[in-house]
Structure formats: C-alpha cells, structure tokens
Amino acid sequence: MSDFRTSQNEAHPNKTNTLMTGIILMLILFVTIQIWFLYGALNNALEDNFFFAVITFIGSFLFALASFWLLRYLPEPLKDKPGKKK
To answer: Cβ neighbours of residue 83 under 8 Å, at least 6 residues apart?
Structure first.
C-alpha cells in the first residue's frame, strides 16, 4: 500500500490540478472564516464581552490550525526528478 505522496506523484496531472484547486478553495474558506472570527473577537473585546472574545479567538485559532494542517496536502510541483530518464 502506498502513502499519500507516492500516489500523488504517480497521479495524472489533471487529477493533481483538481486536488490542488479543491485544497486552495478550502484554504480560502478557512482563512475567510478565521478573519470573520477575529473580527468578532475584536468587537466583543471592545464591548467588554471578554468571554465571547476568548471563544471567538479560540475558534479563529482552530481554523488557523486546520489551514496549516491542510497545507501539507497541496501537491508538489510537477518537475523532472534528477537521474530519472524520460
């Protein structure tokens, strides 16, 4: 059984491009939600609702972690490997 990177390197370029597009769209969604949570945390902190500010900040932090986790699934650039004949 192969791991993710091996099967990804053996995949057809169209499959790799589709995977990359899906991951980038998920990253855009996660970053948008993260910014929305940070905006809510700032508004709650300015209104002295520190309990809700902490909750929204934690939510933003969790979306940041999810974004960093998702970055590892971006495909590697398609390139010729050294020593590999065409």
So the answer is: none
CA distance 15 to 46: 47
d(CA 5, CA 72): 10
Count of CB atoms within 10 A of residue 61's CB?
14
pLDDT of 3-12, one tens digit each? Answer: 766 666 666 6
Over 80: is that where the pLDDT of 80 sits? Answer: no
- For helices 50-71 and 13-46, angle between their N-to-C axes, nearest 10 degrees: 170
Distance CA 30, CA 65 (A): 10
Please give the mean pLDDT across all residues of the chain. 80
CB 30 within 8 A of CB 66: yes
